């Protein structure tokens, strides 16, 4: 089954404790992205990647890191989480269609709470 | 900077009536305009998209129209049903087209 998976689905942590949220897709998509979703603000892009070893900042990259060492995986790293990073996080992947992305397939989401 | 404005933030319609959600964008180079539906507690899923070489696209009860001159695009849902209740997001590319800018979302409520 074609899918995007994220782990963990729920996480409660404390300020400053490094964490990683994993994202994996089995559709051989070139493009992968991380979003955070907060009430009233829609989806805001954190980082995206066009292919292996190619990553770019989105609109809200501060406090986050990513890596793309394999095509299928795109982990999100919070080196020193803070309470303002409490949010719902979505990973998404997409094939590239010429000069744009195509349908983005979203993972199930990770609800993160930083105390 | 580039942004996407979406209106209204909440829309309540009687079952069977039509619903229209509108988005405006600022980057005149944008050429791909998707609409996503997010049901409560679920992930966003694409319901329809349009590219700038056409002005309208339909898929059963949903349609998207694009006015590139005015830089706005709209989602139209006809004969609304209870399962249409959800939050709808529009998006438009920024610059390189590999980054999507999202509207803030419209909560659509279908009244029985």
SSE topology:
The complex is a heterodimer of chains A (115) and B (112).
Chain A: E1 4-7, E2 10-13, E3 19-25, E4 31-38, E5 42-51, E6 54-57, E7 65-66, E8 76-78, E9 87-94, E10 96-97, E11 100-101, E12 105-106, E13 110-114
Parallel strand pairs in A: 2-13
Antiparallel strand pairs in A: 1-3, 3-8, 4-5, 4-9, 5-6, 7-8, 9-12, 9-13, 10-11
Chain B: E1 4-7, E2 10-14, E3 19-25, E4 32-38, E5 45-51, E6 56-59, E7 62-67, E8 72-77, E9 86-94, E10 99-102, E11 106-111
Parallel strand pairs in B: 2-11
Antiparallel strand pairs in B: 1-3, 3-8, 4-5, 4-9, 6-7, 7-8, 9-10, 9-11
Keywords:
heterodimer; A: 115 residues; mainly beta; seven-stranded mixed beta sheet; four-stranded antiparallel beta sheet; 0% helix; globular; B: 112 residues; five-stranded antiparallel beta sheet
Could you walk me through the main structural features you see in this protein, from its secondary elements to its overall organization?
The complex is a heterodimer of chains A (115) and B (112). Chain A has 115 residues and is mainly β. In chain A, 0% of the residues lie in helices and 53% in strands. Chain A has strands at 4-7, 10-13, 19-25, 31-38, 42-51, 54-57, 65-66, 76-78, 87-94, 96-97, 100-101, 105-106, 110-114. In chain A, strands 2, 4, 5, 6, 9, 12 and 13 form a seven-stranded mixed sheet that branches. In chain A, strands 1-3-8-7 form a four-stranded antiparallel sheet, with no helix packed on it. In chain A, strands 10-11 form a two-stranded antiparallel sheet. Chain A is globular and about 40 Å long. Chain A starts with a strand and ends with a strand. Chain B has 112 residues and is mainly beta. Chain B has strands spanning 4-7, 10-14, 19-25, 32-38, 45-51, 56-59, 62-67, 72-77, 86-94, 99-102, 106-111. In chain B, the strands form two sheets. In chain B, strands 2, 4, 5, 9, 10 and 11 form a six-stranded mixed sheet that branches. A five-stranded antiparallel sheet of chain B has the order 1-3-8-7-6, with no helix packed on it. Chain B is globular and about 40 Å long. The N and C termini of chain B lie far apart (41 Å). Classes of the chains: A mainly beta (115), B mainly beta (112).
